[in-house]
Amino acid sequence: MYLITNRQLVQSDEEYFQKIEAAVKYGICRIILREKNVSDDVLLKYAKTITKIIENTNCKLIINSNEFVYKKVKPYGIHLPFEMFLGYEKKKDEIVGVSIHSSEEAIKADKLGATYILASNIYETKCKEGLKGKGVKFIEYIKKHVSCKVIALGGIKEDNMKEVYNSGADGVAMMSAFME
C-alpha cells in the first residue's frame, strides 16, 4: 500500500505528521510526498520529518516531481507525471514511478524503464470529481502488456481493494483514506 500525501486535507502540520505516522503503523510500504502548493524549503522540511518517522521501518519515501528535494534527501525514489518522465534521464537502478492515465501511456512508460506505474483513476473519486473510473479491466489490460509493477489509484477503499488486487494490481495507492 502506498500513501500519497496531501497537506490540504488536514488542519495543521501536526495533524499531517500524525496521519502519516498512523499510516506507517498501519503497514503502508511507500509514501509518495506529493505537495503541490508548498515551496521547496517546506517540501524539504516535510521530507526530512517523514524520513525520521519511517526510520527503522520497512516504509520508503518517494518524492513526487521535485528533483531539487529528491537530490537533497536521496529517498528511495522519485515519482513523475507521464510528460515529465518522457524527458527524464533515468539512472541505472534508480526507482522511478510514473503516473499514467491510459494503456498507451502505461506501455510507453514501461518500455522507457519505469520501475512502477501509478494507474488512475480506477474508481470515481473526490480528487477527480466528475471523471468516470476506468475500472479493474484497465488494470487487467495493463498487466498483460507491461513488465513493471502496476499500482492502482483512485477511489480505492477497504470494500473494493480485494477486487483491485484480484485484477492483478501489484499494489494500491490511497490519499483520502489515510489523510482524512
From TrEMBL:
This is Thiamine phosphate synthase. One of its GO terms (biological process) is thiamine biosynthetic process. Pathway: Cofactor biosynthesis; thiamine diphosphate biosynthesis. Keywords: Thiamine biosynthesis. Residues 1-177 form the Thiamine phosphate synthase/TenI domain. InterPro entries: Aldolase_TIM, ThiamineP_synth_sf, ThiamineP_synth_TenI. GO terms for cellular component: cytoplasm. The keyword Cytoplasm does not apply. One of its GO terms (molecular function) is thiamine-phosphate diphosphorylase activity. CDD domains: TMP_TenI.
